[in-house]
C-alpha cells in the first residue's frame, strides 16, 4: 500500500512538473504516506557552522523500503541570498502519516509546529536573519565560530524542548497554519538543493541511520556539511538524554487534532533580530 501511495503522488508531481516546474513545487507538498507514526526526535549537538551564508536545516525521520531512517541535520549554503529554509514535517490525516516536503523561500512557512531545535521552535526561525546580502546568526542557539563568521548577535530564547515528530493525531503537535503561513505556502519556492537530495540519499543507504538498526540512536545525527558522514563535523545523538521506548503509533478512526496557536514572529528579512521561543535539542 505504501508503495502504491508513493507512486500515486510521484505521478501527480510529474504531471505538474511538465506543466510548470516553479509553480509545481510551490503547490505540491505531500509526497509519501505511511501507516506507522515516526519515532521521537533524537537529541544531538549542533556541528560548528562552516562559514557565512550557511543555513541550518534540522534533521528528520524519512521513510524508505526499510522503514524510518534518520536524515542528519546539516548546514546548507542558501541557494540564493535572502532565502530561508522551511523544514518538512509529518502530518496525520485520514488514517495515515503524510510527509510534507521542505523548501526554500523568502519566508519560513508552516512546518507542523514541530520543535526541531536550534532556532526551529515550531513557528518561524529564531536562529538568524538576513540583512541585505549578509546572514546574521543568533549565537545563543547556533554554534558559530566568531573568528570565521562575524555577523552575529545574542538573543536568549525560552527552553521549550519537545521530541514529538509529527502533527495531528493522537500524541501529535496540535498546531495549525496561520493565515500568514498559508500565504507563504503560495509563494514561489526553491527546491531542496542537489547537496540536500544527495544527503538524504546517503542517509537512506546507511544501515546505521535506520530505526530498525539504531533504535532511535542514529550513527550520525548531524553533519557540518551535506553528505559528510565522517570526520570531526559528524556528530552522534546525546545518548545521556536519549533513552526512550518507542511504540509505533497506528492510525485511529478520528480526524487530526488541531487547535489555534499564536501568530509567527515578525519576518526575519529585515535588519532586526527575530523573536522566538525554544532552544536547540
Describe the structure.
- With 281 residues, this protein is of the alpha/beta class.
- It has one domain (38-241).
- The chain has 5 helices and 14 strands.
- It has helices at residues 2-19, 21-27, 179-185, 194-204, 211-214, and strands at 30-34, 54-57, 60-64, 67-71, 73-77, 84-86, 89-93, 96-100, 103-105, 128-131, 134-138, 152-153, 166-167, 222-223.
- A 4-stranded mixed β-sheet has the order 1-8-7-13. A 3-stranded mixed β-sheet has the order 2-5-14, with no helix packed on it.
- The chain starts with a helix and ends in a 58-residue tail after the last strand.
- 41% of the residues are buried.
List keywords for this structure.
281 residues; alpha/beta; four-stranded mixed β-sheet; three-stranded mixed β-sheet; 5 helices; 14 strands; disordered N terminus; disordered C terminus
Which SSEs are present, and which pair or pack?
Blueprint: H1 2-19, H2 21-27, E1 30-34, E2 54-57, E3 60-64, E4 67-71, E5 73-77, E6 84-86, E7 89-93, E8 96-100, E9 103-105, E10 128-131, E11 134-138, E12 152-153, E13 166-167, H3 179-185, H4 194-204, H5 211-214, E14 222-223
Parallel strand pairs: 5-14, 7-13, 11-12
Antiparallel strand pairs: 1-8, 2-5, 3-4, 6-9, 7-8, 10-11
